[in-house]
Structures are given as C-alpha cells and as structure tokens.
Design goal:
Order of helices and strands of chain B: HHHHHHHHHHHHHH
Oligomer: heterotrimer
Mean pLDDT of chain C: 87
Number of helices of chain C: 18
Number of strands of chain C: 19
Number of strands of chain B: 0
Largest sheet of chain C: 9 strands, mixed
Distance between the termini of chain B: 5 Å
Low-confidence stretches of chain C: 1-59
Chains: A mainly alpha, B mainly alpha, C alpha+beta
Largest interface: A-B, 54 and 68 residues
Largest sheet of chain B: none
Strand content of chain C: 15-25%
Structural class of chain C: alpha+beta
Shape of chain B: globular
Radius of gyration of chain C: 26 Å
Number of helices of chain B: 14
Radius of gyration of chain B: 24 Å
Low-confidence stretches of chain B: none
Helix content of chain C: 25-40%
Amino acid sequence: MNLMSEQVLHSPTLDLRFASSTGIRKRVKQWRLNATLLTGVGMLCVVVLVALGAALLTPYDPIAQQLSDAFLPPFSPAHILGTDNFGRDIWSRIVYSTRLDLQIGFFSVLFPFIFGSLIGVLTGYHGGKLDVLVMRVVDVLMAFPFLVLVIAIMSILGPGLTNLYIAVGVVGWIPYARIVRAETLATRNLEYVQAARTVGCSTARIMLKHVLPNAIAPALIYVFTGMVLAILTGATLSFLGLGPQPPTPEWGAMIAEGRQFLLLAWWMTTLPGLALLVIGVALSLVGDGLAERR
Amino acid sequence: MNRFAYIRKRLILMVFVLFGVTIIIFGMVRIIPGDPAFLILGDRATDQNAAALREQLGLNKPLYEQYWMFVSGFARGSMGDSLLYRQPVADLVGKRVPISISLAFYAMTLAAFITLTFGIWSAVQQGRVADHLIRLSFLFILTTPNFWFGILLILLLALGLRWFPVAGFGETLQEHIWYLFLPALTLGLQLSAVLIRNLRSQIILTMRADYVRTARAKGLSERWVLSRHVLRNALMSTITIFGLQFGNLIGGTLVIETVFAIPGMGQLLFQSITARDYPVVQAITVITAFLVIVVNLFVDLSYSFLDPRVTYE
Amino acid sequence: MNKKWLLIATLLLLIAALGACAPSATTAPPAAATSAPSGATSAPVGAATQPAAPSSAPAATRKILKMARNAEPFSPFIPWQIDDNPALFISVNVYDTLLRTTKDGVSVEAALATKWESSTDGLTWTFTLRDGVKFSDGTALKASDVKASLDMARGGEKSGWKDNYKAIKEIQAPDDKTVKIILSQPYAPLLSVLAMFSGGVLPADMAKASDAKDFNNDNAWKTKGTGAYFVEGWKKGDPIILKRNPNYWKGTPQLDEVRIEYVPDDNTRMLKLQGGEVDLVDFVPFSQIAALGAQPGVKAQTFTIQQTAFIILNTEKPPLNDVKVRQALNYATDKEAIIKTVYFGQAKFMNSPIPQGTYWDKSLPGYPFDLDKAKKLMSESAGKDGFKMDMQVRSGNTNFANTAVILKDAWAKIGVTVDIQTLETSVVRSNYRAGQFMSTPSAWTNDMNDPTQIVNYAMRGGASPFAYWTRYNDPAVNDKITKADLEQDPKKREALYAELQKTYLDAAPLVFIAYLGATAGWRDYVQGFLIDGLSYYRFEDVKNNK
C-alpha cells in the first residue's frame, strides 16, 4: 500500500462497511421501497421500448432528404420537432438514434468497467510491485491530453464506432480501477475475507467471490454518469470525424452538425440535447437509487 | 513516513512518469499518419516541394536522433522549433501556458463556489423541491454541449444584458478577469455538474454514519455538525475528482477557447496535432503532464489536512 | 457555515463588480483607443523619414479599424515563403509587386512599375519604376531591391513559388529606376506572374537575409515594405496590428491602424460584429449572410472571386477509369440543390473546369442535372451493376461534409453507394497523394489572373500533382498546356485554353459543382471595403466613419 489516500478516492468506503455490517435484511427492505430507483428503471424501460419500436413511432425515414423543407421550426404541421438543413425530420432522427446511443453509452462503459474492476481488485488485493507498476501507468495515462490520444487512435485505426469505444476505453477504465482498488484495500482485511483465506479458498476465488462483489458497488454507481459522459464525448469528437459517419442519425453527431446553424436553427442542437437529458435523468435516478439503497 | 519523505518519493516517481510520457508521446505522434510538410504547403504542393521542406525541417533524420534532440533539449530547457511556425516552441507555448492555467483555476474557483453552495443546499433539502430543481438544472448543464452553453451565455449576458464582452482576452489584468469570466463560468458550471452529484451523495451518506448520529445526540447544532463533521469527510472524494479534472481543464479547453477566442493551450494543441507539429505537441503534452502530476500531489496532500487519520506510507 | 455564506457573498460581489465595470469598458476599450504603443502613425504626409514620437492629434481622431478573422497566419510575412491565406492577406497590404492584378481579377495594372515593354522576340522585358516610392522606414525603393526580391522568389532556398518563375533566366538592375527581366523562352503569363503576391518587394538586405537557414522569423513579422501599412512585430496569439505607412505612394491611407483579431468560431465572430466589438469580419457563414445583413447597422455581402468547388475522382480506380461513369456522376449531381442547401444561394453553377477569370469560356454547358442521362450513361458503363465508393471528407469543413451528405443521397439513385469517411485534413492529403482514395471534395482559388496556374495544376498529368491528384493523363492535353504558355498572341492563347477547358470537361476527372464567393460583414460606418477577384482585401481605401 503506497498511499492511504487512495482509499479515500470516490469512497464512502467507511459507510459502505457500516452499511453492509448492519445486515442484509435492511437492504432488501430499502430496495423494495426505493422510489428513485423504480422511477429511473421505469424511464429507462420506456427509452428502451422507444429504441426497439423506432420504426413504429416515426413518420419519416431518418436519412431521407427533402431539401425544399429545410429548417422548418418545431411544431410545424408535418414535422412535430421541425427539420434540419437537409429537410430531414428531427423527431425521426432522434428516435432512430436512441438505439445507437444506448449502444454507445453501454459499450463505451462496459469494457472499461470490466477491465478497470478486474485491474482494481487485482492491484488492490495483491499490492506490491504490480500495484506500483499499474498505478504509474495510470499516472502516465492520466497526465496525457485526451485529445492527443483520441486523434492518434482515430488516425491510426480510421473512423468508426469500434474506434470510438477504443478511444474512450483507453482512459475510461481508470476511474473504475481506482474506485475498485480503493474498495478492495478496505475490504481485504475484513473478517469474512480472512475467514475465507483460513478455510483455504484460492486467491482467485477470494478475489472474485468475496472481495469483488463488495467492492464493486460504488463503481457501478459511477457507471451511470459514465454513460452520459460517453455520449457527450461522442458529440465533442464527432467534429473530428470519430464515431458514426454522416448521415447516420446519432445525438452527438446531430448536436455537432447543428453547431454551424446555432444562430439560424437552435432546435437542431437543442432537441438532441434534450433527448440526452432524458437518458441522463433516467440513468442518474438509477445511480442515485442504487446509492440510497445502501 | 513523514510528509517530506513522501513528497520526495513522489517527486522521484514523477521523473519516471514524465520519462514515460516523453516516450509514448514521441512514438505516438510519429505513428499517426499524415505529413507535416503537406499541411504546411497546402493542396498545391508538389512532391518535390514537400521533400525539400521535410529536409529543411529535419524530418529526414533518424528517429533516435530526433528523440534524443527532444529529450536532451527539454532537459536543457529548450523545446526546439515549431515546424509550422518555424519559431521557438518556448515562444509559442510560453504565453499560452499561463493563460490556460489561469482559465483553469478561474473555472475551478467558480466551480468550487457553485459546488459548495448548491451541493450542500441540495443535500440538506434532500427530497424536497429545491433538491430536485438543483439536480435537474445541473443535469441539464451536464448534458448540454459546452459550445451551446457558451453561446447561450454570450447571447444572454454579453449581447442581451451587455455585462460582459462577447469574446476575446483583453489586454490588462482587469480586462483579462472580465473577459475570461464567461468562459470560466461555462467550464465551471459543467465541472460543478459532475462534482455536485458526488458531493450531495457523499453528504447524505456521511450524515447517516454513526459518528454523525453521535454528534447529533450530543446536542450539537445542525450547522456545527454539518460543517465540522459531515463536510470534512464528504469533501475528500469530491476533491479527488476535482484534482482529476484539472488535466481535462488544461488540455481539454479546446472548444471553450475556440468559442471565446482565447489564445490558450487547448487551441494551440489542437492546431498542432492536426498540423502534425511534433515539437509543439510534445512540449504541451509534457507541460500538461507535469502540471497534472503536481496538482494531484497537492490533492493527495490535502487529505491529511481534511482527515488527520490519513497517513502517508 | 459562516464560511460558506462568506464564499457566496464573495462570489456575488465578484459578479456584481464584473458586471459593473462592463458598460464603461464597452464604450472605451482601454488600451486600444488611448495608449496604443509607439505613436508612429500620424506623421504628416511626405514629411521626415523619422516617424514622429507620440501622436500629437487627440486620441479621438485616431481612426482604428477592428477586424475579426477566422484564421491566424503561420507563414512568415516574406511574400515568397507564404503558404497560407491569412499571411497572404497581410502580405498584400504591406508589400507591393511590380504590377498588380486589377480589382475584378482579370487583368494587370501598374504598381511599383509604371511602364513596361518587351523586345520584339519577347525575351527581354524592361520595367521602369515609379518615382518617389519609399519603404515604410523612409528609405527609397531601388531597382536592386526588386531584383533581390524576385531572385529570392524564383531561386531562394525557402521559396514555395519557384515553379511560377521558371521561364526567367536573369534579372538585371542597370540603374536605380530600371529592372530588366530576361527569359529563356517566351512566356505569355509573365505579367500575371509578376502581379502575384509572391513577388512582393522587400529591401534587398532583408530579402537576402530571409533565406538564411538561421533566419529568425521574428524579423519577418517586422515588415518593411512599400505597401499602405506596415507591421511592427507580431507574436502568435496577439492581434496583428497594421500601422499606416506615412510614405505610401498612393497617398496616406485613411486608417491609422487596422487591428486584426483571431476569432475562429463562426458564431462568435458574427456575435462580435453584432455587439459592435469589431467593425469588420470575414468568412461569414453562407447560412448567415441574409440574417446578418438584416441586422441594424450591419452590412454583409458575398464578393465574386475566382474560386471553384468540386469533387476529385481517382481516375485510376475502377470503375472510375471509365469516362462514362465519371460523366454519369456529374449528371446525377444536382448543382442547384447544393448551391441552395450548402451555399445558401451564394454560389453559381460551374460550367467550365476553370474559375471565372481570364480566358474562362462562358459558353461551355457544364453538366446540368439530368438523372435520366446519368442512368443511361451508367447502364452503358463499367459501373452498370452499381458500385461502392469512398468519399474522404476533411474534418471541420462543414461545406464539404454537407456536400458529401447530399451526394450520398443523390448518387444512390444511379446505383452508387457512397461511404463517407471523415478524416483529418493531413490524412486526406496523404491519402490522395498516394492514390488511396476514390473521391474527395475540394476547392481551388486562383492566385493570379492568368489560367496557366490552374491549368498546369489541374490538367497536366504524368507527374506530381498528377492533374489535381486525379491521375488523369492525356499527352495531347499536356502538349497543349505547354503550347499555351509559349504562345504570345492573346487570341490564339484564348483558343487553346477554350479547347483545354472543353476536353477536360468532357473527360470529367472532377465532379464540377460551383463557383464560390467570398463573404464579409461590416458595420455600416465602414466604407470602401472590398474583396477582389483573387480574394484579397486591401485596406488602402477603407474608411471608418464612426
């Protein structure tokens, strides 16, 4: 252990331990009564349904151009949310994007989450040279301007969704690794872990079965902020050409495309932003709900 | 281990980390496809023009020689010449580093005020209207692209109310503070949006802890409990995130610097990467890395002030 | 808790203080109006060579024009070393050439030279310099300065424009007023080439010094030219300040100072003009011309310049090697739709491969939108079963991106699947140089009024730049290009260029789209601003009547 302070990172660590020691029954009770969580999950379900039923909900093809109908404002007779510079229906584009954006949010967090958590538990449990080495790698990566990494990856691998995941993932695992590592440091000397060790459980088993499940809770909560940030990062990066290529409907790309017409057609940037807000509210309600559960 | 020994150890480690940064950045910018000569010469350049320019810029030298020039130059305090501007990197970067750092600190100061005010307010009012309003507003700020938010602030506060200038940097210190307010506010609000979520949930969690209950049971006033017992603990992880965001603020202010026409490092970094201006990219990366490491060292040191139980091993 | 309230109070005070100081500063941008460094500006016309010390005139009468530009120069202000437009626009305001392209961009007129004549064989040209021309520091212009500068432009180690001066064998300065240019072969575009910005005249010692390997570019940003303005020095990130040249040969300019700020964001630049923080902006987005011009006190305009927008096709990649496929793509492109949607009506149908300058053939038909013809050509071509084609778009260029989106939709109708790839400019350039592309949007602006530059660049195959990187290569065309350069008779040259335009149009190595304009917006008290046919603007006649 090189620095006690790392335990403090992102951690209601102490409280988590208090909470878990006060028993599981209480937790189940809270789980049932948690309105925040339920609302969040409910909203997410609606969003997922919208994503699945996109074709039923949209009157237009999201990439069909009607150049004579460009820049119609919201609440136009034929276009409820108006049209963009190519006369494409914005409602249809937003609805069709939902599936892709959920996918972006999910995948750009999933792999960093898994990788980061495993690294975190490994370094936290073992400590020693491995820990020092990994933490220095983290230092180097953290100190790197994100823009340089992203442009490098994009130029080498070319544009595309997979490369967006890679670009976000290269540094995306770090918060999870640090959170889980801190939790592991706090957990590894608790009685039940020591008990497992005495019984003769293998190290891998202890880490995965006993330490990780307890250490992962705060990381899970961060996941939900991470998903919103990933979609927004996509918006910032799509002007560099990373991510889905035009004319694919995607919120981040729509926001970026609308930028050139910000003073002419505010709705082109604002409406996809509001869609993102809905997902943001849903995900943060889930996150807060999970936090309250403890 | 006492604090000084700890600082010394961290500083020694910093040298190794910076060394790692130089190797990675040097390798990376050269793996990226794209030739600086083509960018400088534009579309009309013939292959002969480009070859002549590459020779002039020293891009034909072997890689190890280029790396040695980079690292040894840095050690001597010289950062070489920009390929694009053909003038010393130090001249280009020297003015921009302070601008970006000031903008970052300005934004962080505003963010600290905003986060403390609304984070505490939101936590204290947990579940009530004020709490929901604050959380929704900051979620809105979080999900709003910052160029959009910047233009919105310009329209409202600069063109509408005429309180602030539209964009620019000004010439005197007073003007700098005045000109940089809107960009700093844009950055600060977005930073707070990340921090408030954290601070609020930390406060709520801490308020449930046994020792807080004990403090309350002792009959201490709510205000005393909040400021002496809860806030100190709740702030620790918020400060960590705060420190981690510093790197983003310094290197990643590209969009805001563009919107508000501030001649900072973000803009220069972006231009230099797209132009494959290797020496400038390398210099900015190493400087940013250094700043990030130093700021995070301070963040780590601040824990022991907030929580005397924290020791440095 | 008290601390918290203290913090909030401080914050509020801070905002209030900032807000309070705002109005005063809006009306009087401090340093700019009153304490501009070194008052070298308002020396009386033709007076001492020494710029007078602090300006005796009251601050209020100093005329300053504030401009916001979309880009910052990166080249030194040495005319023949300039590679970027922002530096070029500074250069034409501080350095003069022997001749100058007229404002409409189609012919040349006198500048530093007032008289010129050629020998009967067309190989020796004699130029007589204008009387009384002085550099901004007061020293007189001599023929040796012209010789030194042109020698650097055509042979200097760092010159990027040597190719244009290839026909020149020798330059002589027999006396202070006469410059003789001796050619190795007759060269019709000579006068146009001498009017190019790259032949700007510096004092001989400065011209020679600039080519040294260890020349410090800081010195290049301290200009010493015969132009209407001069720059005392500049550092990237600072505004560029053009100061009036009291010795200017066309008469003292109206403005004491032009202050050029760098404001890269299009929206912000327009808002700065609307808010009155600047008097003039360039690169008004085409979408905002109408709205900006409708603002009270603001004018916005599109100027005709010699610029074209098109798609480069790689004629070596099947099925693009089939001329019918390329023609089909041209016919399937609805230019009017692109002009309306991408350029908001601020562009014109492109009927010929070259811009609307000298020898432009306005009778050519171009490729009017005709879907049936396109389908018919496709069905007879190597691409009849449809094909997939990449279109590499430079990131950050919204006009190119928008064009690509429209073409993807339009070309799908003739069975072509366009795969849009947004890449960084440097990557796109490396790719098209290496021939690793099928199509990419691009644009061209003439640097001289004669078509030789564009024709040599875009039509001559076989060597870099491979006919604008299309790999189009027709030996008959190559010969004709050489012939047109040598031909002395304007009528015959015109005929040759007409044939070249026709042949190239029919071969369709490009998808021809539109002639573009250059845009600018200004406060209505600014008078005399104009972007000329080669997209330059000079501040010599601009007034600020505020």
